Amino acid sequence: MRITENNKKNVFVTQICNLIIEKATYFINLKDSFSLVLSGGNTPKDVFIELSNKKYLNQINWGKVHFFWLDDRCVHLKSEHSNYRLAHELLISKINKIGSINYINGDLSPVDSLKDYRKKIFNYFGKDGISFDFILLGMGLDGHVASIFPGSNEFSNKHNIVVKTKKKHNNYKRISFTLKTINNAKFNLLIINGEHKWFVLKNKDKDLPINNIKIDEIIYLNEK
Fold first, then answer.
1. What CA–CA distance (Å, rounded) separates 177 from 218?
2. Cα distances (Å, whole numbers) of residue 16 to 51, 159, 164
3. What is the CA radius of gyration of the chain?
4. Phi-psi region of 161 (alpha: psi -120 to 50; beta: other; left: phi over 0)
5. Residue 76 CA to its chain's centroid (Å)
6. pLDDT-based confidence at residue 169 (cuts at 50, 70, 90)
7. Could you give the CA distance from residue 44 to residue 24 in angstroms, rounded to a whole number?
8. Torsions phi, psi for 111 (to 5 deg)
9. CB–CB of 172/75 below 8 Å?
10. What SS3 class is residue 22?
11. Can you tell me the distance from the alpha carbon of 52 to that of 132, in angstroms, rounded to the nearest whole number?
12. What is the pTM of this model?
């Protein structure tokens, strides 16, 4: 696992974008497609803004890119709390041609949203061999990943590829990849912003979801 640490936000964001470009180019050359899984939050927001710049838009064959989401709240697609809305507004709407956009449909009920998202994943991969090319991961201060929280029922789910959370977290039910799906990805990038999260990451407690996933690379921003 490679760890890159820096203390300048613009360099941090550039490193993330460059790695996405590198992996997109590799997988498109290898198999003519690239499945990119996005996250929500402030740090991915900066990445989306940077990727939407012309210097990056022209470096990826977006017509071969297939977007998916790591998790999302069960809210309307236009809600300010929607991870889909964030990515669409800042990045996807700026791209002329895209392979596919496989979002979690919060306009449906949580049960129907789960079924719909599972169907989208199966339509792309088939029933077997589900392995996303690149997942952009973040982590909460409690060590949660995606919408898999410490002590939750979803934490111990070892069979499904995607789940609906049974409890509300911060007032929202959510649809999320399971740890199994995250660990089956070909490349997982974890982005960490701030020393408080870094201290959480250094805690090796197996009860934290973050300590139960495969991480291929970490890019860490430690602003002074």
1. 20
2. 10, 31, 29
3. 16
4. alpha
5. 19
6. confident
7. 17
8. -65, -45
9. yes
10. helix
11. 22
12. 0.95
The candidate with the shortest Cα–Cα distance to 69, out of 36, 22, 110, is 36
Burial of 48 (0-12, 13-18, 19+ CB in 10 A): buried
* Residue 89, SS3 per DSSP: helix
Tell me the sheet residues that pair with 174.
73
Q: Which residue spans within the chain are E strands per DSSP?
A: 2-6, 34-38, 65-69, 71-73, 100-102, 134-137, 162-164, 174-177, 188-193, 217-221
Q: Which two tokens stand for residue 183?
A: 């660990």
Name the amino acid, one letter, at 26: Y
SS3 for 192?
Answer: strand
pLDDT per position as a tens digit, 2-18 = 888 888 999 999 999 99
- The tokens 């589900």 sit on which residue? 130
38 neighbors 32 (Cβ within 8 angstroms): no
Asked if 142 and 155 touch (Cβ cutoff 8 Å), the reply is no
